[in-house]
Amino acid sequence: MGRAAVYRFLDEGGRVVAADLNEINGLALMAEVANEGRASQVRFIRADVASEPDVTAMIAEAEHAFGRLDIVCNNAGIGGAFGSITDLEVDDWDETFSVLVRGVFLGTKHAVRQMRAQGGGGSIINTASVAGLSGGAGPVAYSAAKAAVINLTKSTALELANDRIRVNAICPGLINTPLANQGRRTDSFQDAADRMQPWPDIGQPDDIAHAMVFLASDESAFITGEAIVVDGGLTAAGPSAGRQTTTSPSGWVGMNRGTTGNRPTVRRRA
What we know:
Oligomer: single chain
Order of helices and strands: HEHEHEEHEHEHHHEHEE
Number of helices: 9
Distance between the termini: 35 Å
Mean pLDDT: 91
């Protein structure tokens, strides 16, 4: 979703600082952009969003490279801890919240400092999830973290309204990303989508990127403090959709670190 967002903002004439813990992915993105002749519009910085110095450097890079900061997308994510609540490791729980919640907090904190220094105004967009809207739509740690992101979005929107800094969240449903499909074939992922959502097409990263661009634009100038659901009708389907969602692999406990480049940890339930 982050890669798709970079391209959508470039298509709108934006200048982008892309940040990722996985430097290999970031450098691959830069090579792609350079091949298209748009390297001058993009910078890459390796960043751990749970590290305050890394986030500070990320924000400073935008001001240094392009002169100002107007939009921040707090999008970094991992699958996080999974398994029964009685089997979860405390360290895995903390790592999940460090990336999914602490990362949004730090991105917002330092974005606001820069935006205020410029005289105010801006748009902050946080990636939450439909898992944060109810129980049963994701592993317990992931769901709790995404619920925290939604509330943090609403709370900071109230605080920052007088600065004309808008804060909104996007709640994706089942989106075909490496984190979500976990290597499954497209037809297998389509089967999963068919079971859970009314809309017949698989959600794509561009669907989220389009929503990000809208929330960054003047067309959403009167929207703040909202959690915009982009899920092919999954939540509209009601409780039956939740019952069909697999929250974690049965009998297994561990930590899904997604596309960070760090290995997952998995063990059988004791």
